[in-house]
Design goal:
There is one protein chain. The chain has 3 domains: 321 residues, no CATH class; 164 residues, no CATH class; 164 residues, no CATH class. The N terminus is likely disordered. A hairpin with a 6-residue loop joins strand 16 and strand 17. It contains 19 helices and 29 strands. The chain is α+β, with helices and mostly antiparallel strands and 755 residues long.
C-alpha cells in the first residue's frame, strides 16, 4: 500500500510538472479572441458630500467692471437707476458707499426741422457759478448756469445696496419739478441719459451711461447724438482723462458740457462742441490771432489757457474726429448736415452773427437759414469748405511725380549723376525755368519752399550698412539739365567719395510742392491772384523714393532703421505734412541722421523728435514765438504711442550710431542711448555737456541742476559717452539694457506708462 501511494504521488507530481511546462510554453502563442463584454454592474452608493467652496468676498481690484442695467421714471417723476459692480474675476462688489458715486441726468431735444436747431442735451441737474470777485481769476462779471452732478448721498436721494454687487439709486432730482436755476420740461418721448462716475479712493475710473426713452422703455433705435467716441480722441491723446482723471468717456462728458453751461470766470461757453472746437483751434482762433486769449477756469479758479495750443493737423479735417462712416458714431454726419451758429462760430469766432459783421449773408437771428448756404446741398457747404479741401489735397499730392530712373557713380571720385523723370498731371515737364530764368508755364505750378525760386530738389545719401554717411545734400532741379522730354540729369561732384559698389544710395525728392486752388482742387499757377473762386495753397507732393547700389543697380535693400512707424505719426498728424515738404520718414531721416548737426545743436531724428514732443525745445528756442513750441497731446511717457516694442527696447534697436552735435567750441559725439534718453530726461543741449568740468558744463554756456548732473553721472557710469572728439570714441553699446531693457527690473516698459 505504501509503495502504491508513493507511485501515485510520483505520477501526480509528474503530471503537474508537465501541465506547468505546457502552460508556460503556451504564453508564447497567439492571443486568443477578446471575449464578449460583460453586463454593466450595479450603480454604486452615492459618495459623501464634498467640502463647500470658500465663500466669495467683496474685493476692490485694479480692474473692475460696472454697468447701468435699467432706469425708470415713476408717474410722480422719481427716477430710479439700477447698476452693478464686479471685481476682476466677475464677483459682485458689495462695499460701495453712497458717497463714492455721482450721477448726471440729461434729456435730448431732437433736431427741429423748422428752426434748424440741432439736437442738444439738457441737464436736469444744474447750479449757479458765481462770477469772480478778483480780476486775476478771469474777466467774467456775471454769474452763470452750469450743469453738474448729484452724489448718491445727497439729501432726498435713496441709495440701496443689495449686498451682492447690485445697487439702485432714486435721485433727489425729480424730473417733473425742475424749475431752478434752469427750467427743464420733462418729455417722456425724448431720449434720456443717466450716467455715473466712480473714481478715486482706490477705484479704477468708471464712467457708465444708459440711454432710454421713458415713454416706451426702448434702449435701441432711439436718438442719442453720438458724434464722437473717446477712441477717436485717444488716438492722439493716448488716454484722455480730465477733471483729475475721473472723466474719460465722451457720453459722460456731454451730460455736463451741454448748451447753456457757461464758465463764469471767462464768460466762455463750456458746451462740448464749442469748447472742444475752440481748444483745438487755440492759437489760430481769429480772436487769439488778433491779440486775445482763449482760457477756461476750472476747479478752485485754476486757469487753463489754450491760446498757444496748436492742432498738429489741418483744422478742416473734420472727419478725423467725426467719422460719419463708423457705426459707433451714427450722428457724426451732423457736422455737415446740421450747421449752426454755435458750431461754426466756435472756430470762426471773428464772425458776429447777431450783427452780421464777418458774415457774407448778414445778420442771423437763429439757425433756421444755416442749411440754405452751408448744408449738404448749399453752395458753400461745410463739406466743400472743409473735408472736400482735404480730399483735394490728397489728389493734388500725386500731381507731381519726381522719380529717379538711373544713377551713374564714379567709385574712384564719388562723382554722381542722377536721371530724374518729372511729370505734372501725367505730362512730362519739358523745363522748369526758361532762358531768362523765369518759371515756365509748368514750372509756375511748382511751389517754392520758403518762397524762393527753387522748384524742388533731390536729396542724395548713402549707407554702408551702419547708417547714412552724409548729413544733407540737395541738388535743386533748376540746376539739373532737362532733355525736353521730362528727364532731368542732376550732378554732384565728389558727393559720394568713399562709396563702394555694394553700398546703398537713397534718392528722394524734397521741397517739391504743387499749387492747388482750394476752391475746386485744380492745379494752378502759384502766382494766381486770390478771388472769390481762387485760393492758392502749396501742397506737399507724395515722394517716389528709389534705392540704388553703388554700381548703379536698383535695389530694394534701402536704409530701414527708422525708429517709428508713419502710421503712428498720422494718428495725430493725419495730413502727412512735415517741413521741407516731406511726407515720409525716409525723407526726414535722409537729412536728420546721426551725422547731422542742427540749430538745436543735434540734428539726429531720434533726438530731434523726442525733444520736440517733450516740449523741452522751448528752452532752446525763442519763447516769444509759440509756433516753435510743441505741445504733445498725449502722455510723453507712453513710448507705445509712437513705437512698437522692438523700436524702443534696449539696447537701441534702430539708429544705433553715435550722433554728432555742436559742442561749446567744436563738434562732438555722443553715444546713441544717451542721445535718446537725454532727449527727454536732460533739459540741456547734449553737445554742451563736458564730463571734464565740475558742473558738467561751461558756466558761460549754461547750467545743469543737481538732478540733471546725477542723471548724466548715471549714464556715464553705465557706458554713456558725452563730448567725444571722434566718432569711434562714442560709437559704443552702453550697458543701459542690463537694468532698462523690456522685462528688466527697471525696464522701459515699467518706468514708462506704456499703453
Amino acid at each position: 500500500m505504501e509503495n502504491n501511494n508513493k507511485c501515485n504521488l510520483k505520477q501526480l507530481l509528474t503530471s503537474f510538472a508537465l501541465v506547468s511546462v505546457l502552460a508556460f510554453s503556451g504564453c508564447g502563442g497567439d492571443t486568443g479572441p477578446t471575449g464578449e463584454t460583460g453586463s454593466e454592474g450595479p450603480v454604486g452608493d452615492t459618495g459623501a458630500d464634498g467640502t463647500a467652496a470658500a465663500p466669495t468676498t467683496s474685493r476692490q481690484t485694479a480692474v473692475m467692471d460696472s454697468a447701468i442695467t435699467n432706469a425708470t421714471i415713476a408717474t410722480d417723476g422719481a427716477l430710479t437707476v439700477e447698476f452693478t459692480i464686479e471685481d476682476d474675476v466677475g464677483v459682485g462688489y458689495s462695499a460701495l458707499k453712497s458717497s463714492q458715486v455721482r450721477f448726471t441726468l440729461v434729456q435730448l431735444t431732437p433736431i427741429d426741422a423748422v428752426t434748424g436747431e440741432p439736437s442738444k442735451w439738457q441737464s436736469y441737474i444744474n447750479t449757479i457759478e458765481s462770477a469772480p470777485t478778483d480780476p486775476s481769476n478771469g474777466p467774467g462779471t456775471e454769474d452763470a448756469d452750469q450743469a453738474t452732478s448729484e452724489k448718491a448721498n445727497d439729501d432726498g436721494g435713496i441709495f440701496t445696496n443689495n449686498n451682492d454687487g447690485t445697487y439702485s439709486y432714486t435721485l433727489a432730482t425729480n424730473v417733473m419739478n425742475v424749475t431752478s436755476p434752469v427750467a427743464v420740461t420733462y418729455n417722456a418721448d425724448y431720449t434720456h441719459r443717466i450716467a455715473f462716475q466712480i473714481s478715486g479712493s482706490g477705484f479704477p475710473t468708471m464712467n457708465r451711461s444708459f440711454d432710454w426713452q421713458p415713454s416706451t422703455g426702448a434702449t435701441t433705435n432711439i436718438d442719442n447724438r453720438k458724434m464722437v467716441v473717446e477712441g477717436t480722441c485717444n488716438a492722439c491723446h493716448g488716454e484722455l482723462a480730465l477733471h483729475g482723471g475721473g472723466r474719460v468717456d465722451m457720453a459722460y462728458c456731454v451730460t455736463c458740457h451741454n448748451p447753456g453751461s457757461v464758465d463764469a470766470n471767462s464768460s466762455e461757453s463750456v458746451d462740448f462742441k464749442v469748447m472742444i472746437h475752440k481748444i483745438h483751434r487755440g492759437a489760430n482762433l481769429p480772436s487769439v490771432v488778433n491779440g486775445g486769449e482763449y482760457a477756461i477756469w476750472g476747479y478752485r479758479n485754476s486757469k487753463h489757457d489754450y491760446s498757444d495750443t496748436h492742432l498738429p493737423q489741418d483744422i478742416r479735417n473734420c472727419t478725423n474726429c467725426h467719422d460719419d462712416t463708423s457705426a459707433e458714431t451714427p450722428d457724426a454726419i451732423n457736422f455737415k448736415s446740421q450747421p449752426s451758429i454755435e458750431a461754426c462760430g466756435s472756430c470762426h469766432d471773428d464772425v458776429n452773427f447777431a450783427t452780421g459783421v464777418g458774415h457774407l449773408a448778414g445778420a442771423q437771428a437763429d439757425n433756421s437759414l444755416c442749411q440754405t448756404c452751408h448744408g449738404t446741398s448749399g453752395f458753400s457747404s461745410v463739406e466743400k469748405n472743409h473735408t472736400d479741401v482735404m480730399s483735394n489735397v490728397d489728389i493734388a499730392r500725386t500731381a507731381i511725380v519726381t522719380q529717379a530712373k538711373a544713377t551713374r557713380i564714379d567709385l574712384a571720385t564719388g562723382n554722381v549723376e542722377v536721371d530724374v523723370m518729372i511729370t505734372l498731371e501725367g505730362e512730362p515737364v519739358t523745363a522748369l525755368r526758361d532762358i531768362s530764368d523765369v518759371d515756365t508755364a509748368q514750372g509756375a505750378k511748382f511751389g517754392k519752399y520758403g518762397y524762393g525760386t527753387d522748384n524742388g530738389a533731390i536729396a542724395i545719401n548713402w549707407d554702408n550698412g551702419t547708417g547714412y554717411q552724409l548729413n544733407h545734400q540737395e541738388v535743386v532741379f533748376n540746376d539739373c539739365i532737362a532733355d525736353g522730354a521730362g528727364l532731368f540729369t542732376c550732378t554732384a561732384t565728389g558727393l559720394l567719395a568713399g562709396i563702394t559698389a555694394t553700398d546703398v544710395v537713397t534718392v528722394t525728392p524734397v521741397d517739391v510742392l504743387v499749387c492747388m486752388n482750394e476752391k475746386d482742387g485744380a492745379i494752378v499757377r502759384c502766382d494766381s491772384p486770390e478771388t472769390n473762386t481762387m485760393k492758392v495753397a502749396q501742397i506737399e507732393s507724395t515722394p517716389s523714393i528709389v534705392f540704388f547700389k553703388g554700381d548703379g543697380t536698383i535695389t530694394t535693400e534701402g536704409y530701414d532703421k527708422i525708429g517709428a512707424d508713419i502710421t503712428a505719426c498720422q494718428s495725430c498728424h493725419a495730413d502727412n505734412k512735415f517741413h521741407h515738404a516731406s511726407t515720409d520718414l525716409t525723407q526726414c531721416k535722409t537729412c536728420h541722421n546721426a551725422t547731422r548737426t542742427g540749430y538745436r545743436g543735434l540734428g539726429d531724428l531720434k533726438r530731434h523728435v523726442h525733444r520736440l514732443h517733450s516740449g523741452l525745445d522751448k528752452n532752446a528756442l525763442d519763447d516769444s514765438n509759440p509756433e516753435q513750441i510743441d505741445h504733445f497731446p498725449g502722455n510723453i511717457d507712453n513710448c507705445g504711442q509712437c513705437h512698437t516694442n522692438d523700436q524702443f527696447n534696449l539696447p537701441i534697436q534702430q539708429n544705433t550710431r553715435a550722433s554728432i552735435a555742436r559742442g561749446a567750441s567744436d563738434n562732438v559725439y555722443i553715444s546713441p542711448t544717451a542721445v535718446v534718453c537725454g532727449s527727454c530726461h536732460l533739459n540741456v543741449k547734449l553737445g554742451l555737456i563736458d564730463p571734464r568740468l565740475p558742473g558738467l558744463i561751461d558756466p558761460a554756456k549754461g547750467s545743469i541742476d543737481t538732478k540733471g548732473q546725477a542723471l548724466i553721472d548715471h549714464m556715464i557710469q553705465n557706458g554713456g559717452i558725452f563730448g567725444a572728439a571722434a566718432f569711434d570714441e562714442a560709437n559704443k553699446v552702453e550697458s543701459c539694457a542690463v537694468c532698462h531693457a523690456i522685462g528688466a527690473e527697471f525696464g522701459v516698459d515699467k518706468v514708462h506708462e506704456i499703453k
